[in-house]
Amino acid sequence: MSERGAADSGVDQERRQRLIKLASAAVFLAIVAVAVAIAVAATRTEGGDTEVEGAAAITRQLAGIPQNGMVLGDPSAKVTLVEFGDLQCPACKVYAEEILPEAIESKVRGGEAKLDFRNFTIIGEDSTPAAAAAVAAGEQGRGWSFVEVFYRNQGFEGTGYVTDEFLTAIAEAAGVPDIERWERDRHGKRILAAVERTTAEARDLGLDSTPSFAVEGPRTNGLEVVEDAGSAGELEEAIERAG
Amino acid sequence: MSAAARRSRARGAPTLSLPAEGTLRRAATFLASFGIGVAAYIAIAEADGGAPACLAGGGGCEKVAASSHSELLGIGVAAIGIAGYALLLATALLRGDGARMGGFLLGLVGFGYSVYLTWLELFVIEAVCQWCVVSALIMTALFAVNALRMVAYVGRPA
Fold first, then answer.
1. Can you tell me the distance from the alpha carbon of A206 to that of A221, in angstroms, rounded to the nearest whole number?
2. Ramachandran bin of B12, using left for φ above 0, alpha for ψ from -120 to 50, beta for the remaining angles
3. Mutation to test the B interface, candidates A13, A17, A34, most B Cβ within 10 Å
4. Hey, of A15, A19, A148, which one would you mutate to test binding to chain B, going by the most B CBs within 10 A of its CB?
5. Which DSSP category does A72 fall into?
6. Could you read off the pLDDT tens digit of each residue along chain A, which spans 243 residues?
7. Fewer CB within 10 Å of terminal CB in chain A, N or C?
């Protein structure tokens, strides 16, 4: 190249050498930057052996359905089906996997109803941090994704599996965009107050188990408890009666 | 054959036939345009929580799209990719040392970021999205073309 450069007329050799040195330095800096970025990411994931399952299936299941806070579906839908659930509750997991998907497809995806997950923390002390983590994910539009991914990876209640590492893995798998903000939010008083508020609301409605359902629409007198909610068909009927 | 190449051969030096700068710029223009198309498809597919269609199935694209690493400071990586490819397209269309160095540095940053993202896919997310691989290959080719353009022609008249 240097011979070619020397031979060409109009070549500023000094400038050329300076720019190539600058480029070489940039290459060196880029190598260092990539190495540092990988080292930092590797450090963050150290110890993060929590294997999260089902996230891709949840992404497919909820694709195209709006999520706002803990509400799934069109915010302007005239009927709201409320699930009072505890993330540690095994029956809620069964509902999430076997009953709600049908109701989501038939009533929520089309905009007839929206589904509101309200935390009712009754299982144990780990229920509250799990609930707060879900609400914090909802602040970033991933509330339902978090709830669904959590249920797919739920452990035995009260065994201490709800660790910071577990919650972070769920949040990441649920696609929470800003994990640092989520980490701050889930410990904040505002989020914890929201969890206490929905738990108190469930008790005010006379509920004592999870999952429990309530519905609100043009033909209900405010929020009314759904007494028969043992199948997707019964939940769909409750929505139809309310609308 | 250029006059420079003839003179080199006359002195017994090995000849290296470098592409003309115009050829490199056309190649960079094509690659950057292709990259904009791929990144735009990923961005549109990921809107509203979706994911690009992985041709081989397996859910890799969904897992990558759902990962927190699909955004940087709240901006989608695909959107950042569109901006990067657009800037690379601009440097391919422009002449002079500014465009040569700009294209090289942008290509370097894009290539480095692609290496980082590919590492994340393989070792953190543990899923590979074919569209991300295509984008990484385009960015690698763009870096190679821009590096060749810079090394061969920087400091020379446009």
1. 16
2. left
3. A34
4. A19
5. E
6. 444 444 455 677 888 888 889 999 999 999 999 999 888 877 765 545 567 888 888 988 898 999 999 999 999 999 999 999 999 998 999 999 999 999 999 999 999 999 999 999 998 889 999 999 999 999 999 999 999 999 999 988 777 889 999 999 999 999 999 999 999 999 999 999 999 999 999 999 999 999 999 999 999 999 999 999 989 999 999 999 998
7. N
Cβ–Cβ < 8 Å for B63, A51: no
Distances (CA, A) of A112 to A68, A214, A236: 16, 16, 10
Contacts of A74 (CB under 8 A, 6+ apart): A66, A111, A114
Residue B106: name the closest of B87, B133, B83 by CA.
B87
CA atoms within 13 A on the CB side of B34: 16
The ipTM of this complex is: 0.75
B78 close to A (CB below 8 A): no
List the structure tokens of B26.
């056309």
Please check whether residue A144 is in contact with residue A62, taking contact to mean a CB–CB distance below 8 angstroms. yes
The model carries a pTM of 0.52
Residue found under tokens 């759902």? B66
Phi-psi region of A44 (alpha: psi -120 to 50; beta: other; left: phi over 0): alpha
Query: Do the bridges between strand A224-226 and strand A212-216 make them parallel or antiparallel, or are there none, so unpaired?
Result: antiparallel
SS3 A212: strand
**Cα–Cα distance between A169 and B111 in angstroms, integer?**
28
Q: At A65, which amino acid appears?
A: I
Task: Return the DSSP state at A224.
Answer: E
> Which one, of A139, A137, A201, lies nearest residue A170 by Cα?
A137
- A3/B48 touch (CB, cutoff 8 Å), yes or no: no
By the CB < 8 Å criterion, does A22 face chain B? yes
What tokens does A142 get? 């991933």
Please state, in angstroms and rounded to a whole number, the distance separating the CA atoms of residues A177 and B75: 9
Per the structure block, which two tokens stand in for B20?
């003309």
DSSP state of A240: H
Please indicate if any CB of chain B lies within 8 Å of the CB of A176: yes
